[in-house]
Amino acid sequence: MRKLWIALSIFVLLLFFFPLLIIKESPKPQAEQTKKEGGYCPFEITVQGVDKPFALEEYVKGVVAAEMPIAFHEEALKAQALAARTYALRTTEKGVKPIAKDVSAQVFYTEAERKKNWGKEFKKNEKKIDAAVRATAGEIIVYEDEIISAMFFSTSNGKTETAQNYSGADVPYLQSVDSAGEEALTPVYKEENKIPLAKWNEALGMNWDATMFESLQLIRNSSGRVQKMVTDGFEKEGREIRELLGLRSTDFDIAFDVTNNLVLIDTVGYGHGVGMSQYGAEALAQQGLTANEIIAHYYLDTEIKKILINDPECLKTP
Question: What are the Sporulation stage II protein D amidase enhancer LytB N-terminal domain coordinates in residue numbering (predicted)?
Fold first, then answer.
């Protein structure tokens, strides 16, 4: 009888304690676990034309791989990751809206595209990109606690452009800064264009002759880019000329070859010129600057902030 009582007591104790052991050992929900560990906010980004959304950091990997040469210095890649993450969260309103996959937003490569592009170098390159993204995970660029418009472009003409000159809106952190050392790093720093006069006239919607080129004025702004192009009966913004003619930048010079009826256009730099120059970031990284210092150089008076799971910005967390 005593043995039966002991066995019964053990059975009752097991019934009581075993569920507690299961609860204790069961893994916590990801959000709760991340909060306890002080992790960053798990946003998801929806890319137009791609079936499933991506975790924010996976999306950033795809942008860095597409937007910046893999041979670049790790600090330049980190700076690109910071800009790409910031741009994505602002553009998508923290994951609410989809984002384009091309240059109308920022270029993004899926893992399958990265494998195709890199071939045998995929694992090595993926490891390098992954390291840059992990080093900056959850970090964004803010100005007075607001997510900035982290514009970036390929190559400057030695200076970046102001947001005021580009769009007419003055943005305190998007001012013109020096961006030296790029010419030696890229073959696209300068380009020579030869456009037949007929094609020029078709693009601009007006019949030019030699006298119009003789009176042509290129009115430049403080960054050396063409703000306005003016001649007899014609006036357009430099940005519009760039778009109409498919030029690499708004830092251009124009001459007319009367003998061959050719318009000769020389451009310097590549891109709109506002924000971070990618080749400028590489030049600064080669000089020993860190990613944070590169960001501070191109986005004035900004800070780098980590969006933690319990921050107000983490809107998608239960």
Answer: 55-143
